[in-house]
């Protein structure tokens, strides 16, 4: 029996027993329980790690998809930029050709005015008995006039009038031939170079 100390209502050993845990299960079962708890904790940790890893994998997959889409958009934009650059180059070449043609047309217009004024000068200085057969320009930029005249005096008068007019810098008779027919006419060739 348990003895009581004086003043104690309960025996001393009972107090000690209450403060100690008594496990009546065999040691092997206790060890299995502890290792089972470890397995459960390891399993939960594995599930958490697996969940985290799959979340990271899904996040990386989404980021890769977003970057692929961004890359495709950039390639499309780059293609559009290249196409715009090609169009701009084409427009620049068209503009250049248009400018070249405008200059040519302007030069033709100026030359047309030049020829118009040249023929006006020829007409004003032409004696009545001179006619033109052919008016051409040479490769040196000179005007060659072939024609007929009533006399050699008319040709001389025409040359004198052209020199006085000042439209041509030089006027000279390249050739003059008397007609073999009964009239006193002749054919001539004048070479004129521009002075204006």
Note down, in words, how this protein is organized.
With 196 residues, this protein is an alpha+beta fold. Helix content is 61%, strand content 18%. The chain has helices at 12-19, 27-124, 152-165, and strands at residues 130-137, 143-149, 168-178, 186-194. The chain has a four-stranded antiparallel β-sheet with strand order 1-2-4-3, covered by helices on one side. A hairpin with a 7-residue loop joins strand 3 (168-178) and strand 4 (186-194). The longest helix is centred in the middle third of the chain and has 98 residues, at 27-124. The chain is rod-shaped and about 165 Å long.
For this entry, give a set of tags.
196 residues; 3 helices; rod-shaped; alpha+beta; four-stranded antiparallel beta sheet; 4 strands
Major beta sheet summary: 4 strands, antiparallel
Spatially, the strands of the biggest sheet line up as 1-2-4-3
Instruction: Give the % helix.
Output: 55-70%
Structural class: alpha+beta
Write the layout of secondary structure elements.
Blueprint: H1 12-19, H2 27-124, E1 130-137, E2 143-149, H3 152-165, E3 168-178, E4 186-194
Antiparallel strand pairs: 1-2, 2-4, 3-4
